[in-house]
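dumping this here so i dont lose it again. seq + smiles for adenosine-5'-triphosphate
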Amino acid sequence: MVEEDIATNNLLPDSDRKSGAVKLQIVPSQPKTLSHLPHRPAVDLAFENLTYRVKEGRKSNAKVILKEVSGRLRSKELTAIMGPSGAGKSTLLNILSGYKTTNIEGSITMNGKERNLSLFRKYSAYIMQDNQLHANLTVEEAMTVAANLKLSSKKSKTEKSLVIREILDTLGLQDHRTTMTRNLSGGQKKRLSIALELVNNPPVMFFDEPTSGLDSSTCFQCINLLKMLARGGRTIICTIHQPSARLFEMFDQLYTLADGQCVYQGSTKQLVPFLSTLGLECPSYHNPASYVIEVSCGEHGDHTRKLVSGILNGKRDIRTELDFIDRKNDASSALVKVHTKKNVNKNDVQNVGEKFAENLNANGNGVIKTNINNDIAKESTTVSIPIDIDKELDVNSALLPDEMLEATENPARYATTMFHQFWVVLKRTLLFSRRDWTLMYLRLFAHVMVGFLIGALYYDIGNDGAKVLSNLGFLFFNMLFLMYTSMTITILSFPLEMPAIFCVIYVSIVYYFTSQPFEMFRFAMFLTSCLLISFVAQSVGLVVGAAMNVQNGVFLAPVMSVPFLLFSGFFVSFDAIPVYLRWITYLSYIRYGFEGTALATYGYNREKLKCYQTYCHFKSPTTTLEELDMLDANFTLDIVALLVIFLVLRVAAFLFLRWKLRTAR
Ligand SMILES: Nc1ncnc2c1ncn2[C@@H]1O[C@H](COP(=O)(O)OP(=O)(O)OP(=O)(O)O)[C@@H](O)[C@H]1O
């Protein structure tokens, strides 16, 4: 990563020293080559008459969030999407990135052709504001997971390590490769988010407020990095809230929205002259970025309509001064030309002015003053930055020339097989489990503690004919304990962890201390029932976690379990349940688990229990099963039922997740 060395005054030329200016030297500290990444074509994006509506309340009420906006985003350029709060920046970014796909009208093209969404998703990355990093992985581990998921499994381990090393070097994270991601600074986290996406070498990268939460120096480094990525041939688009003048001038292009319409599209340098053509003079020493937001907010009067028509709601693109004064071409026909012309050089930024040139006069605005200059960025800042960005940040991005796009148009959607992805994610999950203290040790502690407590409470009752009812209470408690410990943890910490080990430990402790029959097959049956209850309960947690938010889930999952507990056969035997309610017992997974453990302990011709009193009603295990209406029960059926419920719940969890993702779009 680029590092800033603020040189002391004595390193400055005499003139600067006298004026008190501090020079900021940008020193590239790392080699910047990304030559081992997969090759990708450069991608230009264009959108035309984009309208986005959301339904509010009754069907007839549709809120229009984007109103027929057009625009173009080019490779090799760093584009900022700016605008007042609520203007529609995030909405536009979500639509362009393919994150939102419904209720959209208008067209989006990729290198002049209609966008193929699945191809585009492969070629683009969307880095959200809150860095979605896994706290319990080191930088290198996180990168390895990304490389294993995103790079072809044909690539060897060494090749993948080379890619990782190269990216970490370029982004200045090599020294932090063994640091846990939770310990990284804000700027480093942002860089790691970018590094993780770079593995796939996406030619288009979207950033939602990449500078939020960063101090000014880190903001500068972050935007510098984005610029470096753009210079490598990528199309970099980010939303940004009122950047400083210094930051603003680092962007190549600006796309400004106000109230869902485009009020400016063009180079950052042309913003002030353009506004001036409409009679909006940005005062000297005023940040142009602030000024355009102020204008968009209506602080200088209502100019939105004037700006929208001045820029043709994004159909115009102000790249050079010529774009204001060229009256020869008709705007709409010029645009049509761009969209239909087959051999247009999409990356030729120099030609764009011509492509989008149109008659400003149509809007009743005169020729601009060409010498208008807002030089706040140059003169009011005491820190000048002598950086030749194009030279310093020369990144070989491994992007393909345009003509090779055809050859790569139909790549497989994922670089690796589903099984391989599953394996990588499983390994990562196991690693999390090992490292997550609360998840691992607290749960282990809870299971061991409760195991010993139950062992002490029900000590040696399993073979006592006088304590059979207590023993049944113990069997039922097992169901309760395993159900709640497995269920709630998945609602809270989606995705699933491994409840099996804890279940085995707990069951071994309580089985021994409560003196259940010491026969291997009975223990195996007991353990199988308990394990399946854990898995089923965990799946209930997954369904609830996938279907609703944590607050509702934590409340609803236990509440929803109450009927299953009531109909488990412990509180009311099957025959005593009203006929019209009996069907619920067939859905009660607790019933199958309880029945399984009861059969394991009292079924299969177990010999009579010991009796230390004159009369023990439950001396014969058959009597117990008879009282529980389990004489005809079948252990295999219980296991099959639990397996079916488990599978149904897993499928339901998957469907809920898919539904949730779809509705978010
Ligand atoms: N699903 C929705 N239902 C109703 N209104 C919505 C919905 N999504 C977005 N909006 C509205 O659309 C407008 C644009 O929202 P968006 O999040 O794109 O704004 P923004 O420019 O990114 O704002 P900010 O800078 O504050 O994040 C807002 O007024 C918002 O309330």
